[in-house]
């Protein structure tokens, strides 16, 4: 599978080709460069604007004045808990809006837990079982998100592909993101190793009826409450030091 460069990397590369002080128009004028990497994305301007906001929060650029930015000398990214709902403009379904918004935030802020890569790339739409992949070690992650706090039972995805992944021992690591839409902020995030999500944690749901658009499709729920001992905090509510998070991750049996 072709590896996809993340939005954060693309926007940083575009910024580095510009003078130290640049304008929003300078970045938007490079739409063709971004479209080459994401030809099916209909919201390139929104993704660019959000990437600029994230890079500002992470200290790579600063806002000099409206529409004008300045590149800084920062090298290490800082965590940004904020997400931009505008990246989901054009979507109507609440679940789709949440998916696009949280996946974009995760791509901008999360990092690999299994190696020292500082970012994850979004997998192509409709990829089964997983949402994100480390571009270095190819570890995969499934994102689950909620406006508020999760209970013990979390809504899963398609039942059969998950069962097949279990048979192959290819269950991705799960990242649970809890956010607050009132302030467009991620409050908590944690991860559970996929190897600990066993078949007895999966609760199959009833298949969709013949009249449904996806007739026969069957989803599932996940009982993750029983896996609290294997849950590693990433955001609580401020972002934790990645070295501490990876250290806790490695100590899990």
What does this structure look like?
With 253 residues, the protein is an alpha+beta fold. The protein has two domains: 7-71, Orthogonal Bundle (Arc Repressor Mutant, subunit A), CATH 1.10.10; 85-250, 3-Layer(aba) Sandwich (PvuII Endonuclease, Chain A), CATH 3.40.210.30. It contains seven helices and twelve strands. The protein is globular.
Number of DSSP E strands: 12
Number of helices: 7
Chain-averaged pLDDT? 90
- Spatially, the strands of the biggest sheet line up as 4-5-6-8-9-12
Write the CATH fold name of the largest domain. PvuII Endonuclease, Chain A
Fourth CATH level, the homologous superfamily of the largest domain: Dam replacing family, catalytic PD-(D/E)XK domain
Percent helix: 25-40%
Low-confidence stretches: none
Query: Can you tell me the overall shape?
Result: globular
Secondary-structure element order, as H and E?
A: HEHHHEEHEEEEHEEEEEH
Number of domains: 2
Strand content: 15-25%
Quick one: biggest sheet? 6 strands, mixed
Structural class call reads: alpha+beta
Assign the CATH architecture of the largest domain.
3-Layer(aba) Sandwich
Given this structure, which CATH class of the largest domain is correct? Alpha Beta
- Termini separation comes to 31 Å
Structural key phrases:
alpha+beta; Arc Repressor Mutant, subunit A; PvuII Endonuclease, Chain A; six-stranded mixed β-sheet; three-stranded antiparallel β-sheet
Quick structural overview:
The protein is of the alpha+beta class and 253 residues long.
Set out the fold topology.
Elements: H1 7-16, E1 21-23, H2 24-28, H3 31-37, H4 44-57, E2 61-65, E3 68-71, H5 94-109, E4 120-122, E5 132-134, E6 140-147, E7 153-158, H6 159-167, E8 173-180, E9 185-192, E10 202-204, E11 219-223, E12 232-235, H7 242-250
């Amino acid at each position: 599978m072709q590896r996809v460069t993340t939005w954060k990397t693309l926007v940083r590369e575009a910024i580095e080709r510009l003078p130290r002080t640049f304008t929003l128009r300078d970045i938007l004028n490079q739409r063709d460069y971004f479209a080459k990497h994401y030809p099916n994305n209909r919201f390139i301007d929104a993704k660019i604007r959000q990437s600029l906001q994230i890079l500002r929060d992470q200290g790579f650029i600063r806002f000099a004045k409206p529409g004008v930015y300045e590149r800084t000398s920062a090298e290490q990214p800082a965590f940004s808990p904020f997400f931009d709902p505008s990246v989901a403009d054009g979507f109507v379904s609440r679940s789709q809006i949440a998916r696009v918004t949280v996946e974009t935030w995760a791509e901008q802020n999360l990092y690999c837990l299994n190696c020292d890569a500082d970012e994850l790339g979004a997998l192509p739409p409709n990829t089964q079982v997983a949402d994100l992949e480390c571009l270095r070690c190819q570890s995969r992650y499934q994102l689950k998100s909620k406006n508020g706090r999760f209970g013990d039972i979390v809504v899963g995805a398609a039942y059969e592909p998950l069962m097949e992944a279990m048979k192959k021992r290819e269950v991705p690591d799960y990242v649970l993101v809890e956010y607050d839409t009132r302030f467009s902020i991620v409050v908590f995030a944690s991860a559970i190793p996929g190897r600990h999500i066993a078949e007895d944690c999966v609760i199959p749901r009833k298949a969709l009826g013949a009249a449904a658009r996806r007739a026969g499709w069957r989803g599932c729920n996940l009982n993750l409450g029983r896996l609290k001992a294997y849950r590693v905090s990433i955001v609580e509510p401020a972002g934790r030091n990645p070295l501490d998070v990876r250290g806790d991750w490695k100590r899990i049996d």
